[in-house]
Amino acid sequence: MELSALIDNFTSPALLFFIFGIISVQIKSDLMIPESSAKFISIYLLLSIGFKGGQELAHSGINLEIALSIMLGIFLALVVPFYAFFFLKRKLSIENAGAIAASYGSVSTVTFITAISFLDLEKASFGGHMIAVMAIMEAPAIVVGALLIKRYGDNKTQSSIWSSISHTFKNGSVLLILGSLVIGFLASEKQAEGIKPFTTDIFKGFLAVFLLDMGISSGRHLSDLVKRGVFPFLFSSIAPFINGLAALFLSRLITDDVGNQLLFTVLGASASYIAVPAAMKTIAPKANTSIFLPMALGITFPINVIIGIPFYYALIQYLNA
Length: 321
What we know:
Blueprint: H1 3-10, H2 13-26, H3 35-60, H4 64-88, H5 94-105, H6 109-121, H7 129-136, H8 140-152, H9 161-169, H10 172-186, H11 189-194, H12 196-201, H13 203-226, H14 230-251, H15 258-269, H16 275-283, H17 289-320
């Protein structure tokens, strides 16, 4: 990647708004995005990404790469929480180790959306099937985390694991992006063109406002994590690169597409701070949300958005040169 392109990536409005949100918290500003507005923007981004992914999938068709991509996504979502659990339980309780492992095996939809925006800035394409891979990766890590907690914990989980996983599949974010994917797949190119001003033209503006809100949230959780000592901070800083690089090199076995490789890398590197905390409330109520939520949102998310995405893209370009 040329230096000028790298500078453009770090000075993109969406990223700068995210950094601005973090700074506003550090200077103790009362800046905030109303919760109702943030929720609407989140719905819009998921709908837009899902719809456009469905359109891309309709144009590309179903092939072996898509099947292998789904299998790789599930593999990552199963293996990452498994290895992470046994590493984490040496320093943390079984419940906290399982919840953190599930978070890092699952994915961050917002990080994924930011990576797609990055690819758009670079004028790089990606396969629409990657939207489906992202959505499918939400639940397997929760299953692994729940089973490990049940196997090694002193107490049984408070509710049925499978009922909690079923609840995860019914999660509004997962349902919306899958539903939008199907609708985009079924809509004709002419019909999609009719709503392009909504699904495409205003996307970057809404993303900037949403990342401002995420910056404010990240800044608040970052201060919470400082009180928890060095270990959670180190894990949430290093694990994204280990998982991301592993996903990158595995993805190169099934696809030559630069955009798809970046999205696989981001899916491997990201950590869930929405679906997993919601599931763990019933699966492992003893897990401390004030530990694993700040790790995912206060450390891993900013690292991926500010450093990880441009670094991985530069590395992918170098490897594909």
